[in-house]
Amino acid sequence: MKILVGGLCAVLLAAVMYGQTANAAAASCESLSSLKLPNATITLAQAVAAGAFAPTAADAEPGEAPPSAQAFKNLPAFCRVAATLTPSSDSDIKIEVWLPVSGWNGKFQAVGNGGWGGPIRYPAMGEAIRRGYATTGTNTGHVGGGASWALGHPEKLADYAYRSQHEMTVKAKAVTAAFYGDGPKLSYWNGCSAGGKDGFVAAQRYPDDFNGIIAGSPAIDWTGRAAQSLRVWKAIHKDEASVIPPAKYPVIRAAAIEACDMLDGVKDGVIEDPTLCKFDPKVLACSEASDGPTCLTAPQVESARQVYASATLPNSKRQVTGLYPGSEPGWSTWGGNQGFGTSVDHFKFVVFKDPNWDFKTFNFEKDFVSADKVDNGLINALNPNLKPFFDRGGKLIQYHGWADPQISPGASVSYYKSVVDTMGGAGKVQGSYRLFMVPGMRHCRGGDVPDTFDAVSALEQWVEGGKAPEQLIASRVTKDGKVDRTRPLCPYPQVAQYKGAGSTDEAANFVCKAR
């Protein structure tokens, strides 16, 4: 009941702020073009017929094609509202709000972005509106997927880091209240990668914004990921001999699977818990000074070890984890010829503010310290004190793939442990926050493993029915749409354990147990 009251209070407050009442008459879609909101201009209010939404070139990133119109053919009829928000003199935040014409479930779902933002994520909004939600998305305050826009624009950087998502949420709730004559009873956040980070930003900075948050593969340690990925790049590209040809990545993965697959008692081509895997790529060492497609030279062995390795700053003891066994097919993300673009842009345009900075000069110990000093909690979302969010009844589901090659899954585990320590133990956390680690899954999804699961329904049941998720059932879906394997995802630190009988492709034959 506490959750419902908190959500309604937030709606009533928004209604008072914008001169509305909770029981005001519903408005037509077109009339929303004249809606007055602080620091906002409505630029579009348009009724969209069922199946008629088709993104245009104006809705895409520069140089990229818009999302396929076919992907939106099964959308219901909705009211499409676009607005520009200007909370600062240098702000130019674009948002959209999609409002189902009929069948609204009375709830609101904001969706997150990825990388440096840029486009509004229409596919994610489409998923929300299909479920009956009023939904909203933002370009995070700029056009373009890199970070060149941040140079000389600290207000735009603040918009990207935290302000655009909050301003979007407040304004979108007001638009929702105006359209339906009543605001949403419950509000949710759903995002992955940078969008997962933004979920934690909301929990940490704006605990009243959402009743429930889904945060997938979150880039919460933004500076740590930037520093670690460039450290790995330098290790791999120390010299020509150290470079691991991408053709050898599957060879390394196969060896890691061979070494660690059976640690959970099930041979299925997946490492259940790679933290228990003691794989040393030296087992692939070529004989003497030879080289070949199925072995690693001595310098390549050392490069592979550096990809897996954690790194620690000597003075502060701040640690960032490397990638884990099973992630090898995606090693080109951090180890490609030009370095990981998101990380390079962060140091170039945010830390050093020099578009000519050469990432090949990166110094882990010195430049990581500089990055943390410049950030000072701006983009990073590492504050472990979630008490204000928990106290108002907020629920948080976090997930992360163990084989993620872009954001180390160790960052999610470390953050979860920091919250447990800050809040006084797991017993004080499990009622509000659960972390699900996904064996073999890459960044947000993928990896030929059970990577499809319904976190939205699980969160709804938790927020609305008080039923905490004891497990999430994940499915592996083939290219022709068939499910050929299911597995339970367990709340950390539990893992899925085979019962010893029945098919290992059926989730019912596993149980979640403490490691």
Describe the structure concisely for a colleague.
This protein is an alpha/beta fold. The protein contains 13 helices and 15 strands. The model is unreliable at 1-23 (pLDDT under 50).
Question: What's the layout of helices and strands?
Answer:
Layout: H1 2-17, E1 40-48, E2 78-85, E3 93-100, E4 107-111, H2 122-130, E5 134-138, H3 154-180, E6 186-192, H4 194-205, E7 212-216, H5 222-236, H6 249-260, H7 298-308, E8 311-312, E9 319-320, H8 332-335, H9 341-351, H10 364-375, H11 387-391, E10 395-401, H12 409-423, E11 433-438, H13 455-465, E12 472-477, E13 483-489, E14 494-498, E15 510-514
Parallel strand pairs: 4-5, 4-6, 6-7, 7-10, 10-11
Antiparallel strand pairs: 1-2, 2-3, 3-5, 8-9, 12-13, 14-15
Helix pairs in contact: 3-4, 5-9, 5-10
Task: List the main descriptive attributes of the protein structure presented here.
two-stranded antiparallel ribbon; 515 residues; 13 helices; disordered N terminus; alpha/beta; 17% strand
Structure, described:
This protein is of the alpha/beta class. Among the domains are: 184 residues, no CATH class; 153 residues, no CATH class. It contains 13 helices and 15 strands. The strands form 4 sheets. The chain has a 9-stranded mixed sheet with strand order 1-2-3-5-4-6-7-10-11, with helices on both faces. Helix 2 links the parallel strand 4 and strand 5. Helix 3 packs across helix 4, helix 5 crosses helix 9 and helix 5 runs antiparallel to helix 10. The longest helix is centred in the N-terminal third of the chain and has 27 residues. The two termini are 35 Å apart.
